[in-house]
Amino acid sequence: MTPSSSASSTLALVPGKNGHQPTAFPGTGANTEPLRAAPGRPSILDLFAGPGGWTHALNLLGLADLGIEINPDACATRTAAGHATLCVDVAALDPVRFTGTTGLIGSSPCQTFSAAGKLAGLLDLPICRQALDDLAAGTDTRAELREHCHDPRSLLIVEPLRYALALSPQWIAIENVPATLPLLIQIAAILRSRGYQAWTGLINAADHGLPQIRRRALLLAHTHRRPRPPHPTHASDACGPDLFGPGLSVWRSMATALGLPPGLHVRTRGNRSAGAGGNVFSADRPAWALTEKTRSWKLGNLDDPDGWRHLTSAEAATLQGFPPDYAFAGSRTAVFRQIADAVPPPLAVVVLSSLLGLGDAR
Known about the structure:
CATH class of the largest domain: Alpha Beta
Strand order of the largest sheet: 1-4-3-2-5-6-9-7
Distance between the termini: 25 Å
Structural class: alpha/beta
Helix content: 25-40%
Strand content: 15-25%
CATH topology of the largest domain: Rossmann fold
Number of strands: 16
Order of helices and strands: EEHEHEEHHHHEHEEEEEHEEEEEHHH
Number of helices: 11
Largest sheet: 8 strands, mixed
Low-confidence stretches: 4-11, 18-32
């Protein structure tokens, strides 16, 4: 979910694993040759692909995608991971170039709608609603409406619908911050009018085994299946099995995930104490939701003012569910931003398993 910007005149292509070789084409030029699905080419399209949270999850499920991403650091991270990537602006492309897409994923930049940001997206909700209605009516008014946005990134939330209407994929998965739920509900209604079955709602990553309280809005849609959210496996308080299920494990703590001793705390604003505007939480509970400002988090003991240290990027990646050897490119700030913006791969696994009917999705 990294921010988008204007596309360059040429499109940088990075091949992926297992011989997937997408065809390069100009990002804004005259070439309109479709990128048709072909043997060896992924038929799953991941908009705003970031460093590869959804992609890594697909790989764990034996699937692959073609990711579109504009941020150069995220593209470099994807390259290192071997993910097929088009380094270009999602909003500048004609979706019909991806004819043959069977699955569509869209986690647009959340900063304008996030509580950790300036919430300009909330002011832009009426404009986003208008753009969605216009797309549903067959009219693309993004360029005109963008001029009226408090933050032009807000309109990126409509891109998954634009691609869905052009490509008619078999299934769609959209993830974003809770404030976007009204827009996802509107998108779901439009998709239902096109023959999709759809589910929208909120889920918490901690309920699915991630050591982080991370609430997100989801839209799941399918042409042949009734989408359902994944069943929770964890809760704030453990409960044993009963007639309705196998029971729930207690939420995983930050300390458990990182192998830390008990009793440590996290200051989310570095050296600032709670009384100076900082915030403190116990590492014996799940971490708070990661943001790019997680780079300022410090770990330590409340009784030892001199023993605090910064959270490392490797620890942040673990809290987000990436494997230890996942290599992130860029500066420390860029790495933390990529980690925080990504969809946690373990959460993506259970979401996709539930949507596609791959096992129990628990």
